[in-house]
Amino acid sequence: MTLDAVAGRSLRTGFLARAAEQPDAPALVVAGSTVTYGTLERQARVLAAAITADGTRGVERVGVFAYRSVVAYAGTLGALCAGAAFVPLSPKFPVERTRQMLRSAAPEAIVVDKASAPLLAEALAGLELRPRVIAPEPGVAAALVAQGLDVVGADELAGVAPLAELPPALDDDVAYLLFTSGTTGVPKGVAITHANVLALLDVAAQRYALTPADRCSQTFDQTFDLSVFDLFVAWGAGACVYVPQPIDLLAPVRFVQKNGLTLWFSVPSVVALAVKKSMLHPGAMPTLRYSLFCGEPLPEASARAWQTAAPASRVENLYGPTELTIYCFEHVWRDGEATQENGIVSIGRPLPGLGALVVDDDLRPVPDGEPGELLVCGPQTSPGYWRDATKTRERFVDVPLSPTRVKRFYRTGDRVVRGASGDYTYLGRADNQIKVLGFRVELGEIEAVLLRDGNAVQAIAVGWPVEDGRAAGIVAFVTGVTVPGEELVRVVSRTLPTYMVPSRVIVLDEMPLNANGKIDRRALAAQLDDAAPVA
Question: Which of 330, 328, 349, 298 has the alpha carbon at shortest distance from 410?
């Protein structure tokens, strides 16, 4: 089979090159099945042939409605081999959210696995879309056909030849389309081009220098852009990707040990869970070479606990929103380094080729040591929001760096401070800054005190109760403590001014998580609203 010679490099190129070099090497271990590079490539090319009708039909976007299955990963590669962007869809999302994503993305084809298929017709109901549905597993097609869908099932796929000549994939073509939460309640589509993601993958390939002997985790749902790192950094090096099922994420140390993983990548909440369950024994994960965390602030106590359990591992804190392609800042944590004031590991510095500014509300740079909003520019910057020019103009802004030089920056909405060393400290979301009794309050500061002085494993502060759209007070939630919440209120009152002291600190066994594994602030606030007395 030919490689991606016509189009040059794209997101699919690294995988295809490794598949040509080592077709019998393991590429993927999922749900008890091991899939080789050669087998996965063949499956992807067969799906590409079905998606494109053997290359005769141009397709721009392919939905992948599957969850932690071989079909999910083959479908992603199949979309890329078809010259299309993949659009991850999750059966774990509410059907209405999936319908909103389908309405916006308008994929011409959808690859679906057996477990997700019963939800597909409902998700498409009421839409004008008539995508070609590819159902590779036996026993799926008939039910979908009965629901009026155009389906290519397992029997038909058995006679489809793998697509040999792949449609081109150009630098500026969209490689994938992901949806993030929108303030209006409607998901926002973020388009990432091949050039955007290759800029990140090139940096990661040099930084981690993985080999075919490496074994890498795939903890993130595919609707979360960090999953792109999981897959394509590993596949670009010929390494094997190990996919934990949800139950495995409840015992991450055991999963690392069982599979001899050399690279672990997850949200910090996984560490908090491991601490709670007393799993992080000294030296428990000797095979790990890299331990990467992203998606949430990483408490220093969590970094220290994980490092103790993985002494040969380099612990890194990564930072970046979807709009800046997976991550854009990195910091190698070392025990004993200068402690950040907020007890959170530094996000470090921008990746090579990226630029950063810390600005005030008028987008004017602030001096080092002063907090402000983080703006980032460079080759990882997304073209913008999918079919939403207004939101794109709001968040992607031209900033004059000199009388003759203007750069396009993305406004992250995150508050940071740049220290004298050049490292950046994450302070919290700009929209997590509230006013209480007329005072401006940074919720992240309250959380930092609970982590540092209250010895909490996790801490989240929310404005509550909300009256006339303004917070009249503050309530905090913590995990990992044995003292009652009243004692923690007294602890923080020794450090914080009265207007910043939570009226209550609620001790939880565990934090609610959203579909991407991040702490769900809205769910916490909803608990308070549900408990509020009815007037």
Answer: 328
Beta bridge partners of 133: 110, 151
CA distance 327 to 354: 11
Give the distance, in angstroms, between the CA of residue 102 and the centroid of all CA atoms in the same chain: 20
Helix (H, G, I), strand (E, B) or coil at 308: helix
Q: Are 431 and 414 in contact (CB under 8 A)?
A: no
The H-or-E segment that residue 217 falls in is strand 215-217
Q: By the 8 A CB rule, do 306 and 315 touch?
A: yes
The structure tokens listed for 72 are 């999910």
* Start-to-end C-alpha separation, the chain: 70
Give tens-digit pLDDT for 208-234: 999 999 999 999 999 999 999 999 999
Q: Which residue has the tokens 């005030």?
A: 360
- Peptide linkage before 136 cis (omega within 30 of 0): no
**DSSP three-state, residue 55:** coil
**Tokens linked to 480:** 């990992």
pTM score of the predicted model = 0.85
CA-to-CA separations, 405 to 265, 375, 422, in angstroms, rounded: 38, 16, 23
- Calculate the CA 290 to chain-centre distance: 18
Asked whether residue 183 carries a pLDDT value surpassing 70, the answer given is no
3-state secondary structure of 314: strand
Q: How far apart are CA 514 and CA 511, in angstroms?
A: 10
Contact 508, 450 (CB under 8 A): no
Reported as a single tens digit per residue, the pLDDT across 303-353 is 999 999 999 999 999 999 999 999 999 999 998 776 556 678 999 999 999
No. of helices (H) and no. of strands (E), the chain: 16, 29
Contact 319, 328 (CB under 8 A): yes
Helix (H, G, I), strand (E, B) or coil at 159: coil
Rounded Cα gap, residues 161 and 477, in angstroms: 56
Q: CA 223 → CA 10, 76, 322, 486, distances in Å?
A: 20, 12, 11, 39
Tokens of 468: 């006339």
Tokens 């982590």 locate to 451
Q: Which SS3 state, helix, strand or coil, does residue 300 take?
A: helix
**Residues listed for the chain:** 535
Dig out the tokens for 410 from the structure. 């993305």
Beta strands at 290-293 and 263-266: parallel, antiparallel or unpaired: parallel
Is residue 533 classed exposed, middle or buried when 0-12, 13-18 and 19+ CB atoms within 10 A define those classes?
Answer: exposed
